Amino acid sequence: MKHLVTITAILILTVFFYGCRHSVERLEPYGWTCISPEFDSLTVLAEGCLFANVQSDSVANLATKMAMIADESDNNANELKARTLYWKAYSHYLNWKPEIASQLLDQADGLTTDLYTRERIDGLKMVYGNYKTYETFKTLLHQLGYFASIGDKPQEGNTAMLLCNNLMFTEAPDLALAYLNKADSLFNEAGTESRLFNLRINKTTLLCMLDKSDEAAEAFEKLFVDTAITENQNLYELLLRNHYYFFGDSASLFKGYEVNKSNVREGIEAHTLDLLYEAIVGEYFLDKGRVDSAANYIVHSPEVIDELYDDDIKASISQIYARYYDSIGDDRRAVEALTKYNALNDSIRAIQQPENKIYTEYLKAKQQIEVETEQAKRAMRMRLYAVVGAVGLLLVVGTILVSRWHRNHKAKVRELSQMARKREREMMAMALSRQQSDRILGYVEDEIARLSREESLTSRDMAQLDTSLRLHMSDREGLQSFEKTFTNINPDFESRLRAVAPELSDNQIRLCSYIMLGLNNQEIASLMNVKASSLRQARLRLRQKFGLTKDDSLSEFLKQIISPDLNI
User: What is the mean pLDDT of residues 90-112?
Assistant: First the structure.
């Protein structure tokens, strides 16, 4: 019984486990459908580059290897090419070449038939096209739900992090922080620690925007002792720059400036940071009365700002220039820079918040829906655990009750068996007593016959005969006691036998009782005062009335009829 319950529980859990798994085999912990082991291994390496601050060449090299596999493959060739184009586009985005990347993504979109691949393509288009727009926000929300539905925690975390970036400078920094915390949780679950560094730096920005300066200061202290960040020049520079922005720490400004100058990079991103630092440091020296030094740092023409890719950085530089020219009395350039700053700032707000109030309310409503959905999922899981626990408890209780009943039943059967054996011994003793009385009776009969041949009887002869008669009467009472005891032990003995064979005689029923007691043929013949050959004939006739063959056991047959409960 215990083994049966264990096997049943294992089967239930196995069916439940396999029923909850996705039918599509996917890369772990990512959501790409498996196609080719070699190509899939390259995909996992490429996934590790996301948000890990790697050089674009690393992704480009992986994409080149993917292209070779796609060209040589006959199966799923279009899908392999589509994924290869996706990673090539990603490497171009890392090099700040959005036009080339956009073209590659359009080609990939025309080749793929896989829903997951198309979602990744659309997400990359929206994010690097202009990740601050309201349309991008809605697309990211859709993708967040999709990646959660297929269990792709790393990409779900990436999407939550992009939502945080989308909301970073809107009227809802609290929602941005909520998505950032969600991304933090998902990255921890997926074990993708390398993707948490940028996220933790962004968290300090949000804490400062929410006027949580104490929490922000504590977060900065933890990041400054994290070697994974301080040994990465890109991350360390970003951390130092943020610390200067929010805490006005000049040491962080100059340290960040040194790190940026020592980090040899090319492209518009590097030029953007160089120009930003020149403006910031120039403004800092200007504030300290070092106008000449500031002029040396601000050597670039303001028109260069128009070439920069990121509107936020362009707006920050324009604002610094406006303050700088105003402080040195150059009103014309100050007005131009301020006008540029206002235009950029208005443009950012326009694309982020087409209807500021509606947008913010929508975000809060969406967050509330997500909170309620998560609570509903948690409640569903709790109900599921309760049901599984109740079923398990019922199985355990049922097993205990069945086991207890089985033990009691065995004890009862054992008790009945012992009682039956005891009564059989009593019957055996009575039967032997009956045998002895028959011997005495035979002796008395012989004595009577002998005395009848005597011519005269003496008083001694009469006394001896009286003693023999008394013994005979005593044994007759023993015989009656034996028959009464046997009837009490087996009250339905005769009725059950006659139900099987109605034509049984009294002697045959008596023979059945001796067989039931386990007596051998010699003992039974003595008790019944017949010869051995006569007893064999009597047993044969008895077997015929019961319809038994020579292979059937007469004693077992009688036990089945008289005591069926003892047949365990």
Answer: 84
Angle formed at CA 36 by CA 34 and CA 42, multiple of 5 degrees: 90
User: Looking at the whole model, is its pTM more than 0.90?
Assistant: no
Secondary structure string (H, E, C) spanning 127-153: HHHHCCCHHHHHHHHHHHHHHHHCCCH
110: tokens are: 């025309």
Q: Where is 157: in which H helix or E strand?
A: helix 153-167
267: three-class secondary structure by DSSP: coil
**Spatial separation of the C-alpha atoms in residues 155 and 50, rounded to whole Å:** 9
Domains and CATH numbers, the chain: 492-568 (1.10.10.10)
Q: Tell me the DSSP string of 337-349.
A: HHHHHHHHHHHHH
Q: What is the pLDDT of residues 340-363, one digit of tens each?
A: 888 887 776 666 554 444 455 655
pLDDT tens for residues 248-280? 888 888 888 888 878 766 666 677 777 777 777
494 token code pair? 């005769």
Quick check: 199 and 183 in contact, CB under 8 A?
yes
Residue written as tokens 């043929």? 521
* Alpha carbons 297 and 315: distance in angstroms, whole number: 18
- Strand partners for 33: 26
